[in-house]
Specification:
The protein is mostly beta strands and about 270 residues long. The chain is built from no helices and 11 strands. The chain has a 4-stranded antiparallel beta sheet, with no helix packed on it. It is globular, with a radius of gyration of 20 Å.
C-alpha cells in the first residue's frame, strides 16, 4: 500500500507567532495500535534551537515546544499522548570545553520538503554564507524521510533514492539501503522499531520504519569552511536511480528539514 504513517515532528516554537514553528529537533514514527515505544534520540547538534529566544540582555529564558502530526493519527479510540523528555548536560562535560571556554550556537535553515517529481531540484538555490570569526565547529544536520507511492513505489518503498549535500565542492551522500527490501524494518527492531505491528511494518523504507525515531544525518563540515570572512557554498540535490525523479503518476514526497549549525567561541580561548 501507500503511505499510512502517523508522524510526530517536534519543533521549538516561535515566541512571537503562535502558528509558526521554529527548527525541527526530532521526528518519530508511530507504532500504530501497538501504542508503545520509547526512543533515545541524540539532538545535541540542535541545542542552538533551544536558546533562540534569548537575547544579549537575557531575554526570555523559557523555550516552548510544539508537536505536529497527521490528523488521522488521532482518530477513534486510539488518540496519541506523546511525552518528550530532554536530557541536558553542561558544556564542561563535552570533552574538554570547560576551563572558561564557552560557545554560542546559531541554527540556520537550509533546504525543505518537496514533492518528489521532476521539479524536486528546481529552485533549490545554493546557500551562501561567510565563515564567522572565532569559529568552533560547523555542521549540516538533516532529517529526511520518503513518503507516498508513485508508479515506482516512491518515495516510501522504492530503492535508489539518494540525497547529496555538496559543501565547497566536497560531496556527502545519504542513501537508504533497506528501502525496497521485504524485511528491512524487521532488521531495525534492535534499533528501536516496534515489532509485530499491523499492515506492512516489516517492509524496508526510505529513511524510516514504523514505531521508530528518525535518525538525524549530521555532517561535520568544520574543516571544509574557508577563512573567517570568506564565502562558503552549500548545495543539495535529491536523485532517483542516479537521475532527477520523473514519476508518471501520484508523485510522493521527501519530508526534509535541514540546517546549518555554526558554533563560535564566546568565552576565553
Amino acid at each position: 500500500g501507500g503511505d499510512g504513517t502517523g508522524r510526530g515532528r517536534v519543533y521549538t516554537a516561535s515566541s512571537s507567532d503562535d502558528l509558526k514553528c521554529g527548527p525541527e529537533i526530532g521526528r518519530w514514527m508511530t507504532p500504530f495500535r501497538r501504542r508503545v515505544g520509547r526512543w533515545l534520540t541524540d539532538v545535541s547538534v540542535m541545542k542552538g534551537a533551544l536558546v533562540q529566544n534569548l537575547t544579549s540582555d537575557g531575554g526570555d529564558p523559557t523555550c516552548d515546544f510544539r508537536m505536529r502530526s497527521v490528523t488521522w493519527a488521532a482518530t477513534g479510540d486510539h488518540f496519541w499522548y506523546p511525552k518528550l523528555t530532554l536530557h541536558l548536560h553542561s558544556q564542561a562535560e563535552e570533552g574538554g570545553r570547560g576551563n572558561g571556554i564557552s560557545t554560542e550556537p546559531t541554527v540556520i535553515s537550509l533546504f525543505d520538503s518537496k514533492t518528489f517529481d521532476r521539479h524536486f531540484n528546481d529552485d533549490r538555490l545554493p546557500f551562501i554564507f561567510r565563515t564567522p570569526e572565532k569559529l568552533f565547529s560547523a555542521h549540516v544536520r538533516a532529517l529526511i524521510t520518503g513518503h507516498g507511492f508513485d508508479n515506482n513505489g516512491c518515495a516510501e518503498f522504492c530503492a535508489g533514492i539518494t540525497n547529496h549535500f555538496v559543501v565547497n565542492g566536497q560531496e556527502f551522500m545519504l542513501d537508504f539501503p533497506l528501502a525496497g527490501t521485504q524485511l528491512g524494518c524487521t532488521e531495525q527492531v534492535v534499533n528501536g522499531s516496534e515489532p509485530n505491528e499491523h499492515g506492512t511494518w516489516f517492509f524496508g523504507r526510505n529513511g524510516w520504519c514504523d514505531g521508530q525515531d528518525v535518525r538525524p544525518w549530521t555532517i561535520d563540515i568544520s574543516t571544509l569552511l574557508k577563512a573567517p570572512g570568506d564565502v562558503n557554498i552549500i548545495e543539495y540535490a535529491g536523485l532517483y536511480q542516479g537521475d532527477t525523479p520523473d514519476p508518471t503518476s501520484n508523485p510522493g514526497q521527501i519530508l526534509m528539514s535541514s540546517y546549518l549549525v555554526l558554533e563560535t567561541f564566546s568565552g576565553t580561548r
